[in-house]
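Human:
Take a look at this sequence-structure pair and walk me through the tokens.
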Amino acid sequence: PEIPILERKNWLIYLLYVRRDYDECKAVIKEQLQESHGLCEYAVYVQALIFRLEGRIQESLELFQTCSILNPRSADNLKQVARSLFLLGKHKAAIEVYNEAAKLDEKDWEISHNLGVCYMYLKHFNKAQDQLNKALELNRHDLTYMMLGKIHLLEGEMDKAIEVYKKAVEFSPENTDLLTTLGLLYLQLGDYQKAFEHLGNALTYDPGNYKATLAAGSMMQAHGDFDVALSKYKVVASSVPESPPLWNNIGMCFFGKKKYVAAISCLKRANYLAPFDWKILYNLGLVHLTMQQYASAFHFLSAAINFQPKMGELYMLLA
């Protein structure tokens, strides 16, 4: 059957977009839009997706808005408009558009999930939880579990966060991000057995997972196995050389081995990468104090107190 002029090159646009041949794709879109006098919804839609990938969010927003004018009954067009608003940091406007999209398609988990994320950024945690729970009822996704857990952590509800991540791991036992996050939470609670179990599982599925490797190294370090911990950190350093916690931990391993000059150089690197991290400043103060370099120790401990004024140990060291 004869395909209408508006749709004639849609298959080619789709093919080029999926192959990531964006320059060629743009050329075909331009032709298609000239032929159809700008009325081909699909061409405009793909052009907007390409703009978004190129970081031209405002232009992509305008094109998605054009799509929703061409086809006002499409929930997908409204979702993309809302996504662009979200990327521009306009969370309230994004919520309004997502609500419009929800009227057109009530059973879409993505709309509920994204509404939850928008509410989270606006610090409306109760509404965010409602939307994310609704998204999980519609369709269980790892990403939704991650966000729900994050909200519980922001509210300081560690137990609820652990429950959410446990459910998530039951649903998706091979997701290394979930396993690592759960392992780190157990580590914070001091439950080393469970922490090691989850971090070990994460490393079984993905031996290159630097977060899990770093956490496993820190547990060995806490038990005084500095050489074993350093061997773990060496693996991490090759994949993420710019990680402040990594250099902080390496520095404290050297401190434990009484190699103070090496400790200071590693901690200085960590401080350069994360100048506002009070833990690194605390450690620098501690090492300088051990080396009897009191002026430097005073400098770093004072800086740490500015960021963490409610910690008694810092004042003790300063005194």
Observations:
- The chain has 19 helices and no strands.
